[in-house]
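Batch manifest, entry 17 of 40.
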Amino acid sequence: MSRLEAVYFAKLAEQAERWDDMAEFIKVAVASTPDPSLDERNLLSVAYKNTIGARRASWRVLSQVETRERQRGRARQTALVVAARVKLEHELTDLCKDILRLLAERLVPTALSIESRIFYSKMIGDYYRYLAEFSTGADLDECATKAEEAYAEAAVQADENLRATHPMRLGVALNQSVFQYDVRKDPARACEIAKASFDGALAELDSLSEEGYRDSTLIMQLLRDNLQLWAAELQETETETA
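Output type: structure tokens
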């Protein structure tokens, strides 16, 4: 299959919402070139985000059901849910390691542009974050550390090379702050990252082109929503401990 055919089939799978197929096709395309195009990078991101996103949502449902069954003292039902959850965790692990291996072995070493390097570093952070969501013990520590390092690298490169309003720079800050809140359980640090990014972009909003306005303001809205939620939680915690 040629690179062009693989991209075509990936887009076809996207329209049909066959995310696993889309991931397989776009892997063929990006592995056949030393520096995939922006369109190909976006297709890769969409494919894995959706195929893993559906399983992450399922994992959250199973975790809630497991907690409920435990609270009811239903040992047999709890064991069945645990088996389903563990099976799903194996699927998530395989998918995350698959994309992380592709990034480490093929995409990062040959990345030519600053934007592609930032893009890949952010992806590495994302997929280690997804692994950290259900990992425990030493595995959790390892995944969290690798996610934090990747986000830090992406943030440094983005801050040095992209405008504060650039969607990729905003996206790095958004996901980095979510990591601090969800994985590190550090809402203060999450607020710090989100606020710095939002305020920096707000100061340059007038310079945004019409083309980039929608993407940038959408991510800014997500940053603001998270910031308001986390700040309110911090204030409530401070009130309770006062």
